[in-house]
DNA sequence: TTGTATGCGTTATCAC
DNA sequence: GTGATAACGCATACAA
């Protein structure tokens, strides 16, 4: 009807005014306080609905210890792994009446710090973070005073518990599988060693190679982006001394590798065997199916969340300054069709 | 050093106290107010850092019109399309100093309402929403008074602008492509018609079929989940009268369809041609590449965000009650190897 | 250049 | 059962 209705924004005092009550009573009525007359509650609520009253969250939060949100700081939301984690956390948060504040850092320490700061300013009830390789000093300070849990990556300078993947186990299992299949010339394409998970994966590869007296130095390390592995695999496979098998150190790298193989017109497992890392739905659909290291995403997501929320609802327990042992989740090798038995040649 | 350091929580008054200043001065110093002595600013900031002062966001928000967050309400974060959107919105939000509050509804109207309410309570600066098929009455009311934009789906009862895909165009192009290739027996596997986008896609298929005098009723409609299309395609392809081509109505359905074909040991494009919907990175890597309808994700994400933020920073303009025409973004057909020319037989 | 007083919307404490 | 009043932490209009 009216043309300019810029929502007058209703407060409990407004309700109190038009109802001839005090704002205290209105507040109590809305909160279903035991000793408010039933009829009063009804009247208050009726008007509240009619006028479209919505409580002001800021005002409410100002009184409590923390805000109604939990933060999730991850490097990439388009990555299947993190998207799954986000889903799990979103569900858990919603179930307990928390909001989910998402930060996508792209592994940029600046952004990590800015978004974290915003979370601290908002007095987030809890924070789940996959720290960048080199967080800024401020980030560490900010985090130290917060209720947080580390996910996937662990920065040793942080006092918080960490939920990580047993990367050593994952890559070593993949490598061992290929060795068992008779491969001797195996290359590893993985992420840099600035992060412990990159180091662990590399170590898993090298350990198994050395254990079998094979060359552990056929290795390409770089950023976890498809472009890098595309380039790396292209180089590896266009040389004269081609490896007969490839072990991948991340799902993004797996994508790039597959693209490279395709551009070189190389078939797998015929021309080269390959074991992926991670297990998005489509790995199963590729060719004869991609043999891969499956990460226990669901379990990890559920666990970090419960870990965080457990402490969220309790009086903050600052557990010593010692960096606690991380909870390691074991990946499993999914056997499909991308690794073949090498017949002596 | 100390064992029990439960962070005393520092406020500007605390700073003011130990500095022998008034909290006003501290406030101004922190805000870099022009007429505060440079030296004072320095002292204040030094102490602030030392004591780990962090402003209280709730208190700050209480004074302004809205909180520092923008909300994104989507049905699924594991879906490539929405994950891309989330990325775009996260970037834009971070760039402008907003936080991103993510809600994953799973198309559950209850959850949609709860999460939306939380956003309203938090006085979110703006909201991007992909509404469920049947939002609750409350949801509509809550939304009506908010600064919001609809994405992908448009609920006609809502007064907000909508940014959608030209679904009719997408599916009709896919269908036409197959017809041009000589297919006459084409089936469409799509989403239900409770949403306009589902209706548009179906209409696109039927229109082209009818236009060419072909049977427009080879259709399977259901939930946008892989399980549904797996089942549907399995049925379609095990019957005696197999279609020679399949048009898919969503990316999840495309996944299920591919799984079904694999389980039936059917090759594409040899045994059946198929055109997907959406274009996650891996479509390109499947077999000879999946011919598909590419959605302009980047553009749409950038556009909704700019649309929302433009109004966020301006004085709220309530533009009439009439439901405005949606901005339609045209998809494009990506020709790869999953559709083949049918030689008369 | 700095300080005083006030208000934002709620809830909690103490009356009555 | 209900109502004054204070307090949460911050920013600003208004002095000084």
Automatic annotation (TrEMBL), chains A, B:
CDD domains: HTH_LacI, PBP1_LacI_sugar_binding-like. Residues 10-64 form the HTH lacI-type domain. One of its GO terms (molecular function) is DNA binding. SUPFAM superfamilies: lambda repressor-like DNA-binding domains, Periplasmic binding protein-like I. Pfam families: LacI, Peripla_BP_3. InterPro entries: HTH_LacI (IPR000843), LacI/GalR-like_sensor (IPR046335), Lambda_DNA-bd_dom_sf (IPR010982), Peripla_BP_I (IPR028082). Keywords: DNA-binding, Repressor, Transcription, Transcription regulation. This is LacI family DNA-binding transcriptional regulator. It comes from Polaromonas aquatica.
């Amino acid at each position: 009807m009216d043309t300019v209705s810029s929502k007058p924004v209703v407060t409990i005092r407004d309700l109190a005014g038009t109802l001839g009550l005090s704002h205290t009573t209105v507040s109590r009525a809305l909160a279903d306080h035991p000793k408010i007359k039933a009829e009063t509650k009804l009247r208050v609520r009726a008007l509240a609905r009619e006028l479209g009253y919505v409580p002001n969250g800021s005002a409410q939060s100002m009184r409590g210890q923390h805000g109604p949100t939990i933060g999730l700081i991850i490097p990439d939301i388009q990555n299947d792994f993190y998207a799954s984690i986000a889903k799990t956390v979103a569900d858990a948060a919603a179930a307990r009446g928390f909001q989910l504040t998402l930060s996508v850092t792209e592994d940029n320490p600046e952004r990590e710090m800015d978004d974290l700061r915003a979370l601290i300013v908002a007095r987030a009830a809890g924070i789940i973070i996959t720290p960048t390789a080199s967080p800024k000093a401020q980030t560490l300070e900010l985090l130290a005073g917060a209720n947080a849990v580390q996910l996937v990556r662990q920065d040793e300078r942080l006092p918080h518990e960490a939920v990580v993947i047993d990367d050593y186990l994952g890559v070593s299992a993949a490598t061992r599988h290929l060795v068992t299949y008779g491969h001797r010339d195996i290359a590893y394409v993985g992420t840099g060693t600035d992060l412990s998970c990159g180091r662990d994966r590399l170590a898993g590869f090298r350990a198994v190679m050395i254990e079998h007296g094979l060359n552990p130095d056929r290795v390409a390390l770089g950023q976890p982006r498809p472009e890098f592995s595309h380039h790396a695999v292209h180089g590896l496979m266009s040389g004269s001394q081609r490896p007969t098998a490839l072990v991948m150190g991340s799902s993004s790298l797996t994508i790039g590798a597959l693209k490279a193989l395709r551009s070189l017109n190389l078939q797998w497992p015929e021309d080269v065997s390959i074991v992926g890392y991670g297990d998005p739905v489509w790995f199963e659909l590729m060719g004869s199916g991609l043999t891969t290291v499956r990460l226990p995403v669901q379990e990890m997501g559920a666990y970090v969340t419960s870990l965080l929320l457990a402490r969220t609802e309790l009086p903050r327990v600052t557990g010593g300054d010692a960096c606690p042992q991380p909870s390691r989740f074991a990946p499993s090798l999914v056997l499909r069709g991308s690794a073949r038995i090498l017949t002596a040649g």
